[in-house]
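Handout, page 2. Input:
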Amino acid sequence: MCREHGHPMPGRRLPRTLAFNKPYDVLPSFTDPGGRPTLGRYINMPDVYPAGRLDRDSEGLLLLTSDGALAHHITDPRHFLPKVYLVQVERVPDATALERLQSGVVLGVTLTRPAQARLLPQPPHLPERPVPIRFRKHIPTAWLELTLREGMNRQVRRMTAAVGHPTLRLVRIAIGPIALGDLQPGQWRELTPGEVADIFRLI
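Output:
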């Protein structure tokens, strides 16, 4: 920015940040040598890159930005930025399983940070997934809301499996103060300067 007048310097683009509802089976990258679906199928904006990951078999909110400082703040585990997930699991977790998720689960040699976990009384209203989950006959399913403040590789799936409830469907609905809202799979919107400021403020 020009310090005297507060206007962008000539030839410099202002940072842009997007909220994207990543569909199932889409890689969190813009290219893939194997030709699998990528972000490039949905987003045509130069210089924005994912701030963090959302695995191919997971859905929901992904933030993309051209602001390197913002990307660092979102992904740096020291900032404890909360991420909220809706998780469909096999069988109905009891109080003991929920307490384990909340107090921490050992994954490999690492104990996960304290989390928030609650059993939803009703399935959430979500768009149908293009590939249905694999139901196992006579095994019920349940939905959890799980809030984490770290980002280990495939952490949600590993945590629920560790307490005996494998994940069937995983949808991220919030990153810090930014919620998925009514964005449909494949849709994106640009964050306002106020929303970007809220991310820094929360951290």
